[in-house]
Records
---
Amino acid sequence: MKLQGKIALVTGGGRGIGKAIAKCFAREGAKVVICSRSGLELKEVEKEIKNEGKDVLIHVADITSIREVQRLFKTIKSYYGPIDILVNNASILGPKTEIISYPYQEWIKVIDVNITGMFNVTQSALKQMSPKNSGCIINISSGVGKSGKPQWGAYAVSKFGVEGLTQVLAPEVAHHNIRVMALNPGPTRTMMRAEACPDEDPQTVPPPEKLAETALYLAVSTTMKDSGKSYDARDLFDKTSP
């Protein structure tokens, strides 16, 4: 019960990495809140977590809407109290094509979800964490956010933004004892990965449950000296193995 008494929000918690992290955190005693744009997916995760006798609150929200995000955090505070842990996981892939032919509306959509949405959620989370002088924010990044690759377009650019926001934010909130870290999952067995790499055998990459253990490690085992750092999940696998 490493997260006993903690309140954790996981965005994009209806599937894949977000779902795995939400279930992992709930098993460790956290009161977990998951949000996504799909109510059907959230209800399925809610059922799975409650079947294990754990606390969970689901909330349908479009994180690109500041009003919906503010409503989300108002709901969290009224149900559980101010949050302790935020996992910024929600993101979309967008088309894989060269910049010269990248559709404008798709570019705006990807940047809006992956960067502006993360900003909206993070800002609201900080308003609950700062008065407590404690908190942990884990931003899910990507390998293409560290080394750009052709045809990864807005997704890669947005993940560079995730890394940049992590570096900018960490020293700003250090005096509130809030840790901010980026986590690059590496290849992970998700629907997004299958869409991005259709020729890859999914059985050759780790499942999202493995990544969830690394997120738990960052939430529990890091200190303020680790804030602002970017971690690759595979470098932590040996630390999170049973």
Note: The chain has eight helices and seven strands.
---
Amino acid sequence: MEGIFITFEGIEGCGKSTQANLLYDFLTSKNIECVLTHEPGGTPISEKVRNILLDNKNEEMDSLTELFLYFASRAQHTVEKIKPALKSGKAVISDRYFDSTLAYQGEGRNIPNQKIAEINSFATGGLIPVLTFLIDVPAEIGMNRLTTKDRIEKESLEFHNRVRGSFLTIARENKERIKIIDGMRPIEEIRKEIASIVLNYI
């Protein structure tokens, strides 16, 4: 039986990584085989690309270079880690995937979404998560939660507001797949809501 592909999305500091880890722990406790991963990265090759993408020294990086590096990382991640796990019947939980590219490089960098969607489909073989949790918080809150900032996190508040707006638009256009979660609530309350949704889906 094919596994289930679940992703977590949101702006920096929204709490998605925490919730991805908590869901992994919860499903594991239910004896459901899981793989927990993240983007950019997730495999040795993809992690090397991640280091280039997030290095604060690479301020001169062009937007298209950034876009193609994200797709290079994702292509390797998908073929090496995600698809084999799904094929073996495991649940795959990824901290970020395709929706982040639409939000950050599409709205954030003003690259046409149609082009992004076409390249992503080619890079991933058309793989789409069956369930996505968008952990939503105001951009100012997310930024204030960060103690250190990488190259993307150091972008302006206006940039992160555009990214948040894009995530919400994407969610409204994909209501069946994407569940908007209020990230301003207590961590445990959010965890229970997500666990309930996933159990009902399974």
Note: The helical segments are 16-29, 44-54, 63-87, 98-108, 113-124, 139-144, 157-173, 187-201.
---
Amino acid sequence: MNTREQKLDRGGVIAALAAFGFWGLVPVYYKGLQDVGAWEVLAHRVIWSVPLLIIFLGIRDGRQFLKKLRLPLSSIAWLVLSGVVISINWVVFVWAVANDHILDTSLGYFGTPLVNVLLGYLILKERLSVTKVVAVTVAAAGTFYLAWYLGRPPWIAIALAVSFGVYGLLRKRLNVGPMLGLLWETALMYLPALAYLLWLSSRSELQFLNVSSGIDALLIGSAFITVLPLIWFNMAAQKLPLTILGFFQYIAPSISFLIAVFLYGEQFSSGHAVAFICIWLALALVSIEPFRRARRRLRG
């Protein structure tokens, strides 16, 4: 490996650590907004992300920005659907953090790669190896055990894993970059988000500009929470093999797990222990083969 490749790899690793480390710490940020309704937080996340994305893409793409912005109507229709799905993911996450369910968000995002495997098999007709079948079965067993232990399904974890998995599947159908796609998704949700805030204001239920400057700053800052880690992720994706990049995704739910248990004192029961162990084992099984392939490519 030459010196340039080593530098690129180092930069990619730093960017990946920044992106996934940041995502792992996001619950701390949204804890500061726990007294604001999840739907209002979502609306602000949409509204403030649009101008930030326009500025970033305008600087990045220059005169090509408006040209790249033009998409076929079929792509825009798919982006409407993906925007709805990611909105569901965001609002469930924000609600979960505000209501002391960070541990469930960690479980959900640990389970997302396994949902991806299942969706690939069911929707894209991808072949499932014996190892992947065993992995999905082990993860499902852990989830069912947790549901039995709690007396109810872990709906938050399931909703996050499924919504993010479906979002990834929808975006996979589109030849649209992640930043441009996010701009379209948030722009398409802009008017509904604005209408919702105006409706809250008409009912004197709007938190923005009516509680404290700190809350206002956090709501506006949610745009940076949305966009910044995505910029770093794109930098990492350009410099690292996707197989290697995939291993970094476990950093975020790992940090959230530690935050939930040790910072906010959420209860980690024996049922949670079984579920997490099953999912970690399943992830290890799923990761063995691509990790070996990536190592062979790097050595070759």
Note: Confidence is low (pLDDT under 50) at residues 1-8.
---
Amino acid sequence: MTRDKTIELEAGAGGEKSNGLISDIRKNFKIPSKWKNLEDDGASYELGKKKLVFTTDAFIVDPIFFPGGDIGKIAMCGTINDLSVMGAKPIGISLSLVIEEGFPEEDLKKIIASISKVSRETGVPIVTGDTKVTEKGKLDKIEITTSGIGLAGKIISNNGAMPGDVVISSGNLGEHAVALLAKRFNYKTKIKSDCKPLNKEIQSVAKYLTAAKDPTRGGAAEVLNEIAEKSKVKIVLEENNLSFAKETAALSGLLGIDKFSFPSEGRFLATVPQKDAKKVLATLKRFNKEAKTIGRVEKGRGVYLETSIGGLKKIDMPRGKLIPRIC
């Protein structure tokens, strides 16, 4: 007798198993040909001279309050950022709340206040939504789903990286993971979640970007492998120029978790033509002084780390159980 297959936790944590699950689900749907960019952070649809970009995401976070944010802030930032990395200006958000019976009203007020704050600061309104309450024990506290629409003149796709481009990080990576893991394990750190909206940052440099993505689940390893695979290029990161704080590297070593799989919620990675790199960096440093060039794009395939002694170490798409309930 064979056992029925079940969905494993790691299938929702980013990486190879997540991509496999999504691919299996997608096979069941026939998408009308007018919808494009179906494997990017959002789908696009031609509207005259503009392109409508549509994205959606569900958020379950543990803990729901953490240094630098909460589940409400992540939900807003995550959807705004998914639109922004595609070159779209976000114009509206749908907010859906599923709340467990017994959830403290005071905590819900704090979460709604965070959502409202991001909405006001970015100028992206909540335009529709839904709220449900489920029986005690049927949900772990609260789940938030946000969908968003935006308008773009030019779509930035993950398949646009070209040999000769440089790889730019908008700031230190993995600090969202550090903030949550430190709180879980009572590890003392000054690092707060990097969670923030990226719409203004990306809009300021969008015309120069050949590919862009925010490294959420699966971190930099997943994002860069995705860009390399879809663009059919080789990405080489430079060990001496990596954008990880010392505390991030330390926690990575302590827990035995690859820092390249640590997610961020307020950073993006992009490829930029060499001729435009200086002006892009100068602009991004106005938002975050830690923005820097971390690598280059070459002919070939895959993602590699060029070590300080000149060797190349392959960075694979994350596999196995990563970090559950980070975003």
Note: The chain has two domains: 32-152, 165-314.
